[in-house]
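User: Predict structure, ligand 4'-deoxy-4'-aminopyridoxal-5'-phosphate.
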Amino acid sequence: MKTDASHALFTRALDLLPGGVNSPVRAFGSVGGEPFFAERAEGAYLWDVDGNRYIDYVGSWGPMIAGHAHPAVMSAVETTMRKGLSFGVPNALEVRMAETIAAMVPSCEMVRMVNSGTEATLSAIRLARGATGRTRIVKFEGCYHGHGDSFLVKAGSGALTFGLPNSPGVPKPLADLTLTLPYNDAAAADALFAEHGDDIAALIIEPIAGNMNCILPREGYLRHLRALTEKHGALLIFDEVMTGFRVAPGGAQQLFGVTPDLSTFGKIIGGGMPVGAYGGRRALMSQVAPAGPVYQAGTLSGNPVAMAAGLATLDLVRAPGFHEDLLRKTHLLCDGLEAAARDAGVAVTTNRAPAMFGLFFTDRKVESYAEATACDVQAFNRFFHGMLRRGVYLAPSAYEAGFVSSAHSDADIAATVEAARGAFAEAA
Ligand code: PMP
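Assistant: Predicted complex:
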């Protein structure tokens, strides 16, 4: 496998960018080796600057649910960008985006567009604090909500991968306002709210955790958190940056039938352009400036090109049967990977949601942070490189969810499973 061009770029990048990258997990720091540099992407495939092709299960970390460079998305972007890149005054696409989100996610009677998932979550907790007059927030160990100060407490994703769940630079008095809980443990949540319930502005959760590998909520767990927060007058925030529009047209709140007070989005609503959003009940969202006193703003928020890419992607996502087919493909992939591991004598289990999966080097079902972090990370790292050499790109960390897109064909999945046979044998 040729890697000269990527190596040359990474050498230059290391001198100029911290760790050679603009976002930590891209650096292959935990799996070892050097990242490849992308040349282009189309459908289910990524090509690097050395001409290698990979079947891609990262999908730019979530946005590319319809595959890379989908013709409908590219065409919407091209048409829109010819009219100008940013206006700094309202445009029609922002209204259409808000209407689309409200139609797909009924709990979002009003929305505010921002530019990343990080902005969405930190704006949502500011609103929660402003609306309740309370200061504490609750998050879950291993959940990631972007790099806002209040969230870098027992954080997942790159923070977990690199062993930096609590970052220097976050003032201790602020970090102390973030309380943490173990995911899927209802009794621990009851105990925390019994002690601090009156001070808690909001509980924020990934309704399917995708930043400590992929962990689904136990039956009834989200409903329990809904009742608990309501009882104590705290807001429930679903961080659907990853799950939104992915696991169902209306996200995890539709899949599980649990309605949060506020929701945060990103990734898919930008179709690959930088976008985030938060939304919720009218009475709450009306407290955001200029309708209300909770301040939040953005020079490029509601950017027309980003709205066009997101709207075109949401149009694809809304097609009848879209998520059913993604779930079928997710099962096809996970069943195949489990069978290949069994044949190679490697203990592996998977967690599955529509278009989202987790692969664990263990013989047990994984339902908690403790179980996810107890898996064999070294075996995953060997498997990752075995797959990469065979032309399959998985997230370069044992603590990230995998993503299936509508562009992955059954043949792509069969080729992935075939590659896994060799890679599992090496990883054993
Ligand atoms: N919340 C969740 C659940 C996420 O997965 C992520 C990013 N992976 C974020 C928030 C932050 O989004 P962004 O990287 O766009 O700031």
